[in-house]
Design brief:
It holds the Pfam family Glycos_transf_1. Its EC number is 2.4.1.21. Pathway: Glycan biosynthesis; glycogen biosynthesis. It catalyses: [(1->4)-alpha-D-glucosyl](n) + ADP-alpha-D-glucose = [(1->4)-alpha-D-glucosyl](n+1) + ADP + H(+). Keywords: Glycogen biosynthesis, Glycosyltransferase, Transferase. The chain is of the alpha/beta class. The protein has two domains: about 260 residues, Glycogen Phosphorylase B (Rossmann fold, 3-Layer(aba) Sandwich); about 190 residues, Glycogen Phosphorylase B (Rossmann fold, 3-Layer(aba) Sandwich), CATH 3.40.50.2000. The protein contains 16 helices and 19 strands. The strands form four sheets. The chain has a nine-stranded mixed sheet with strand order 3-4-5-2-1-8-9-12-13, sandwiched between helices. It has a six-stranded parallel sheet with strand order 16-15-14-17-18-19, with helices on both faces. Strand 6 and strand 7 form a beta hairpin. The longest helix is centred in the first third of the chain and has 19 residues. It is globular, with a radius of gyration of 23 Å. The structure holds alpha-D-glucopyranose. The site of alpha-D-glucopyranose has 14 residues, from helix 1.
């Protein structure tokens, strides 16, 4: 029941359905959809990157220049995703490039200016379009200057005076640190000292600006909210998060089951339901199709999948030292991802020597991500840190048992088999060490080899979990109202 209808402007650098590089995009689509379902009015605003298909055919809602110096020209396109209207900020100078943030693993040298402009334009367009939200919900460093500008630039502007801001922190390792010169396109930073954002005499952090200026802050899981209060868990920003502790929430992300459910998934070779016969048949067919797709032998064998950005955040450095030893067992491992070229080379080398057991696909493929979730028996997420993690939640929906490190949202969403057999939905380990990962892999394989019936029971139990966005959206509304 809606007590008060809120108008929410969701600001993000990527949105699933239009363009995606990671979990942020999934949230940027699913959360607005659920908020709308609750009766709230939601718009999204994002950069109108050149590579968004259909961009150039979309209506132009506004052609203007920033009212403030340096009066950069831009236009606003009417994009749309799943019935939610998306304001696309188009500016050829900044967003007509082949990628969103980086090329050849190298960040664009003007990212500071690009996202400073984007943050300024998000607010600049509002009076011009006569859009006056109650809440502006920013996400991660790219939009950290939105709460800052709202507080500083528009402090005495009546149009903005009732608007409150929220910042969601999806990954605090990315702080958006730039030299003042790199963001001199905002007059506020020409002064060369902005206490709300300063991290040294010469540099600022856009994330810090958001954390200090937003009215409320959300971490994407309860455990991550606690971790952000520590030096290690916040990657050196504990003081900032501690200063905002009373405004810090931790709301676990949900799963968009219209995208990630084996019953309706249009990517996978065979759909299946949460009952034993359907699950066993469906997963078998998907496994066989994936084996063919990635050139692994056709056989009924324990399959371990992993889909991720290739970075140490995802625990690849725990896996690499023990992978070959694990591959001595009767198993198959499939890893799909792109990222750090050094990690990619190491994985490719191991795959070349173990081609009958290990397939490494260096690609970013939504289709393959769905296939791996459906086909595998186990899903690897041994992350060093993980603000929420979504793939472990998707895995459970496909009866694929996540193997996770007990950190961030992984800890909040997966129950380890050996700690709680009745409620188990996967396997977990604690210490950030390769040998610990090997041990948990062996625990899972032992159960698979000696009691496949029990594995199927746990898989079915995992399928029946419900991480609905509806529940998460209720908590967001509570935060907005506060
Ligand atoms: C980032 C985090 C991931 C989280 C996602 C969505 O990608 O690394 O843990 O699930 O954002 O919030």
């Amino acid at each position: 029941m809606v007590t008060k209808t809120l108008s929410i402007l969701f600001v993000a650098s990527e949105v699933e359905g239009l363009i995606k590089s990671g979990g942020l995009a999934d949230v940027a689509k699913a959360l607005p959809k659920s908020l709308k379902k609750l009766g709230h009015q939601v718009n999204i605003v994002m950069p109108a990157y050149q590579s968004i298909s259909g961009r150039d055919a979309a209506d132009i809602l506004l052609e203007t220049t920033l009212t403030h110096w340096p009066h950069t020209p831009y236009q606003v396109r009417a994009l749309e995703v799943d019935g939610i209207s998306v304001f696309g900020i188009e500016c050829a100078e900044y967003f007509d490039r082949s990628e969103m943030y980086a090329e050849n693993n190298q960040a664009y040298s003007d990212n500071g200016e690009r996202f400073a402009f984007f943050s300024a334009a998000c607010l600049d367009m509002l009076p011009k379009l006569n859009v006056q939200p109650d809440i502006i919900h920013a996400n991660d460093w790219h939009t950290g200057l939105v709460p800052y500008l709202l507080k500083k630039r528009y402090e005495n502007d009546a149009f903005f005076s009732h608007i409150r801001s929220v910042l969601s922190v999806h990954n605090a390792v990315f702080k958006g640190i730039f030299h003042y010169d790199e963001i001199a396109c905002l007059a506020e930073f020409k002064a060369n000292y902005v206490p709300e954002a300063a991290v040294s005499h010469s540099h600022i952090s856009m994330l810090k600006a958001g954390v200090l200026c937003a009215d409320k802050i959300n971490a994407v899981s309860p455990t991550y909210a606690k971790e952000l209060l520590t030096e290690l868990g916040s990657h050196g920003m504990a003081v900032d998060f501690q200063s905002r502790e009373s405004d810090l929430f931790g709301i676990l992300n949900g799963c968009d089951y219209s995208e990630w459910s084996p019953e309706v998934d249009s990517f996978i070779p065979k759909q299946f339901k949460a009952n034993r016969i359907s699950m066993v048949r469906g997963k078998k067919a998907c496994k066989s199709a994936l084996q063919e797709e990635v050139n692994l032998p056709q056989k009924e064998v324990a399959m371990y999948g992993m889909v991720c950005r290739l970075t140490n955040q995802k625990g690849i450095h725990y896996l690499l030292p023990i992978l070959e030893q694990f591959l001595k067992n009767d198993v198959q491992v499939v890893i799909v991802g792109t990222g750090d070229p050094v990690l990619a080379n190491q994985l490719a080398e191991i795959a070349a020597i173990n081609s009958d057991k290990f397939a490494f696909v260096e690609a970013y493929s939504n289709k393959l991500a769905h296939w791996v979730e459906a086909a595998s028996d186990f899903f690897l997420m041994p992350s060093e840190f993980e603000p929420c993690g979504l793939n472990q939640i998707y895995s459970m929906a496909y009866g694929t048992l996540p193997i996770v490190r007990e950190v961030g949202g992984l800890k909040d969403s997966v129950t380890d088999y050996d700690s709680d057999i009745d409620n188990a939905t996967g396997f977990s380990f604690k210490n950030p060490e390769p040998v610990e990962l090997l041990l948990v892999l062996m625990r899972s394989l032992l159960l698979y080899s000696q009691n496949l019936n029990e594995i199927k029971r746990v898989q079915l139990h995992a399928m029946k979990q419900n991480f609905s966005w509806d529940e998460a959206a209720d908590k967001y509304v509570e935060m907005y109202l506060s």
